[in-house]
């Protein structure tokens, strides 16, 4: 799997790898056999990126290091087992657009600005859930202080998210709950692929930051979102998050363009407004056909199970756009 750098739109990575079958559930991958009794501690868990992690007791004061890790955590435990969370969660996690009643239990917890050792040690944490993009010196200091750090690898696909959830569940003693969640994800994935809302049309996930544009190529979460929606990534010949000039975008001339709704650093109006107003980009068939579709920033930049929600939202917009054209 190509391991791409964090999305330039929002530096919020997360997760890992295994195959999530798109065929029938009987052929779907199973959870690996554990070397310890379910729910028992201490335990030594195998890490997805290699190596092992010793967990002495069921963690009760967990700290997620990014929005993707937080999203997974919410599937397994409630706020009573979380010691603190990063402020970026308010913009990019499953809580970003949550109603007040859902946010309230989490809102009472301490927040921190950056992945630094001091605020995490101050939170008296017993498990930190991080990723390859977290500061190495912070992870080293935490481990020197005796704090268990579960580092989840980079994510590009829903299959990667599945493996991450299983790794996190193993650390928390919540394996049975994880398999229930995964079954729900698998059903949603299969429904999306059967729906095939994009019907194989080409698309580009594009962002413009005032001085240059960027697209999501092969091995990115947005390529997975496009595929789940039945779209073909027109930038799939590029690797990771790649620069893309106006000329390159015009040469690809995709049927659809996916943008964030006023993403961070995009300037007034966001990428969507630029595409609709620039006289050069007006030649794009997606612009002419009003096939520029927007996702919320949390879905556009997701590295967690929110990728499924992003594909579901995109599928609805694709179908609504086609229905409008038939009227």
List the helices and strands and how they pair.
Elements: E1 43-46, E2 52-55, E3 62-64, H1 67-76, E4 85-86, H2 89-92, H3 100-107, E5 111-112, H4 117-122, E6 127-130, H5 136-144, E7 148-151, H6 158-172, H7 175-195, E8 202-208, E9 213-216, H8 221-228, E10 232-233, E11 241-243, H9 246-252, E12 256-260, H10 270-277, H11 285-288, E13 292-295, H12 297-300, H13 306-326
Parallel strand pairs: 3-6, 4-5, 6-7, 8-10, 8-12, 12-13
Antiparallel strand pairs: 1-2, 8-9, 9-11
Helix pairs in contact: 6-7, 7-13, 8-13
The gross shape turns out to be: elongated
Order of helix and strand elements from N to C terminus: EEEHEHHEHEHEHHEEHEEHEHHEHH
Largest sheet: 6 strands, mixed
The strand count comes to 13
By CATH, the superfamily of the largest domain comes out as: Nitrogenase molybdenum iron protein domain
Structural account:
The radius of gyration is 20 Å and the shape is elongated. It is built from 13 helices and 13 strands. Helix content is 38%, strand content 15%. Residues 1-6 and 8-28 have low confidence and may be disordered. The protein is an alpha/beta fold.
In short:
This protein is of the alpha/beta class and 327 residues long. It has 13 helices and 13 strands. Helix content is 38%, strand content 15%.
């Amino acid at each position: 799997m190509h391991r791409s750098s964090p999305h330039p739109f929002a530096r919020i990575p997360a997760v890992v790898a295994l195959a999530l079958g798109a065929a029938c559930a009987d052929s779907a991958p199973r959870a690996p056999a554990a070397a310890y009794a379910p729910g028992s501690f201490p335990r030594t868990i195998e890490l997805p990126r290699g190596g092992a992690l010793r967990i002495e007791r069921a963690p009760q004061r967990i700290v997620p290091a990014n929005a993707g890790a937080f999203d997974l955590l919410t599937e397994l435990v409630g706020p009573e087992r979380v010691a603190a969370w990063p402020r970026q969660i308010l913009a990019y996690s499953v809580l970003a657009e949550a109603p007040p009643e859902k946010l309230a239990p989490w809102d009472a917890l301490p927040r921190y600005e950056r992945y630094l050792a001091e605020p995490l040690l101050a939170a008296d944490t017993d498990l930190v859930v991080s990723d390859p993009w977290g500061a190495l010196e912070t992870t080293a200091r935490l481990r020197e202080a005796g704090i268990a750090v579960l580092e989840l690898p980079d994510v590009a696909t829903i299959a990667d998210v599945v493996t991450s959830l299983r790794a996190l569940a193993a650390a928390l003693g919540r394996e049975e709950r994880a398999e229930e969640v995964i079954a729900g994800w698998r059903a949603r994935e299969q429904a999306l692929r059967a729906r095939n809302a994009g019907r194989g049309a080409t698309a580009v996930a594009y962002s413009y930051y005032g001085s240059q544009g960027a697209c999501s190529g092969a091995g990115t979460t947005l390529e997975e979102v496009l595929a789940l929606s039945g779209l073909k990534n027109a930038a799939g010949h590029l690797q990771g998050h790649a620069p893309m000039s106006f000329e390159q975008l015009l040469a690809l001339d995709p049927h659809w363009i996916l943008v964030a709704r006023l993403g961070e650093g995009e300037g007034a109006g966001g990428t969507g407004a630029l595409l609709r107003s620039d006289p050069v980009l007006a030649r794009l068939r997606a612009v002419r056909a009003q096939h520029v579709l927007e996702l919320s920033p949390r879905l556009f930049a997701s590295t967690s199970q929110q990728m499924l929600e992003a594909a579901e939202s995109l599928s609805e917009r694709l179908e609504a756009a086609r229905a409008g054209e038939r009227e």
